[in-house]
Amino acid sequence: MPVNVIYKTRATASGGGRDGHTRSEDGTIDLDLVVPKEMGGPGGTGANPEKLFAAGYSACFLGAMRAVSAKVGFKVPADATVDAEIGFGPRSEGGYGITADLTITLPGLSKEDARKLVDTAHEVCPYSNATRGNVEVGLTVA
Question: From CA 13, how far away is CA 56, in angstroms rounded?
Fold first, then answer.
């Protein structure tokens, strides 16, 4: 499916990949990367691709809810949050995969209204569209 691209950005990884460095072209992201102990690395201070994915997906999903709020007929509360938990591990088919579990908190909305908002946002969020059919995504309304 073609995409009418309205924005592009670029980041470059260097060093050892998961134990290297990443920097966006404009320098707003400039991070050391470290392999977590759970994955056989040294752990410690630093980011990793899963942390970056969690940050991006949670922010994007919150934005998607705000974008569809008029369509569903109510505003996203100012104190709404999206918590993204990203899992990493071997796939039964070989190679590695990720999972994504989003926990959405929408204070002041009924469970029914919150679910409607979350389901509608899941249909338009770019991260949800990119992962659909490829990554197991759980959506929990807190």
Answer: 17
3-class DSSP state of 26:
coil
What pairing do the DSSP bridges indicate for beta strands 136-141 and 96-105? parallel
27 lies in which domain range? 1-47
- Residue with the two structure tokens 């569903």: 72
Number of domains in the chain: 2
Instruction: Specify whether the CB–CB gap between 43 and 37 falls below 8 A.
Output: yes
pTM of the model as a whole? 0.94
pLDDT tens per residue across all 142 residues of the chain: 789 999 999 999 999 999 999 999 999 999 999 999 999 999 999 999 999 999 999 999 999 999 999 999 999 999 999 999 999 999 999 999 999 999 999 999 999 999 999 999 999 999 999 999 999 999 999 9
**For residue 125, how many other CB atoms are within 10 A of its CB?**
25
CATH number of the domain encompassing residue 97: 3.30.300.20
Q: Which helix (H) or strand (E) holds 22?
A: strand 20-24
